[in-house]
């Protein structure tokens, strides 16, 4: 009975956690052509490629695996969906989606972008500002990587680590987690393939220190008016905490004890010489600025990419603040159809091989081809099969 109560408690706790998750955006394309009411294609260039809703030539579930599929070779693509704006300041942000390069991608993008709420969806293009770019990019044998690009101070910074993407023709689940403590994690198919510090893996430590140095009141002795400054007592004789990082936090000024019992502009009396006065900005742009993985006005998600050969399917988009919810969503979507998808592909491959063998036998019996012709026929069928 005790074991049963523990299990029940665990199930209830998990359900409560999922219920408390904030889902900013979620798209599974389960309502047919009504997706066109939510997704807006860019019209800034008549040569942009078109999307259609499709589950592809093979799938795990014909309806659940439907997503946005690129349809024209050698084209740029640009499409986006809007949602109520939000800020992830002080909160975890999880970006997740599935991508399937059914055409066996030779050169092209499979990544998504997260945009500010001010995005003009009809003019979406390569110059449209974005907050995050995440996902696979493939071109020959030289480029097979997962991009993780973050905007900071109107500049784009890419993870310095090389993260390899999947290159087969099956559906894969890509997950990016950005946490308030400036740690991050990249997952493919639910498995962690990279993690670390945003400051160091994006080489942003120097930018962070420059921001601190340029901040008003960042150093001792900075002047300020009574309405600008908040005064605190500090005990100069007390040691600094063990987690104080001098490189990031600056020189240790001493710990804060309490606010002084006097109004701004009044001189305090009877202060012991071992206690000195430290001035700290109460409200400045530096203290309210957004950190390296925090974005003020997130309001759209989209695809803006180039493909040599079309056929990629994008599905199961998710933006949330809860890692457990993202994991559960991934298992309920990609997790349920990945097995049947591979089973269907195996069946189709065997059928294709059987048809090719039967056709070759018919040709041999008919005697309609000489040996060189039969060789080129078999060579051509072999490569057609490899591309399926």
What is the C-alpha radius of gyration, as a whole number of Å?
28 Å
Helical stretch tally: 7
Report the end-to-end length measured between terminal Cα atoms.
54 Å
**Mean pLDDT score, rounded?**
80
- Residues in β-strands, percent: 25-35%
Tell me what the structure shows.
There is one protein chain. With 388 residues, the chain is of the alpha+beta class. It is 25% helix and 31% strand. The protein contains 7 helices and 18 strands. The strands form 3 sheets. Strands 1, 3, 4, 6, 12, 13, 14 and 18 form an 8-stranded antiparallel beta sheet that branches. Strands 2, 5, 7, 8, 9, 10, 11 and 17 form an 8-stranded antiparallel beta sheet that branches. Helix 6 packs antiparallel against helix 7. The longest helix is centred in the last third of the chain and has 33 residues. It is elongated and about 90 Å long. It starts with a helix and ends with a helix.
Notable traits:
388 residues, alpha+beta, 31% strand
Architecture blueprint of SSEs:
Elements: H1 2-20, E1 23-27, E2 39-41, E3 51-54, E4 67-70, E5 75-86, E6 93-101, E7 107-109, E8 112-116, E9 132-139, E10 143-152, E11 155-158, E12 171-178, E13 183-188, E14 191-197, H2 198-201, H3 205-214, E15 229-235, H4 246-249, E16 275-281, E17 298-307, E18 312-320, H5 323-332, H6 334-366, H7 371-387
Antiparallel strand pairs: 1-18, 2-5, 3-4, 4-18, 5-17, 6-12, 6-18, 7-9, 8-9, 8-17, 9-10, 10-11, 12-13, 13-14, 15-16
Helix pairs in contact: 6-7
Question: How do you describe this structure in short?
Answer:
With 388 residues, this protein is α+β, with helices and mostly antiparallel strands. It has seven helices and 18 strands.
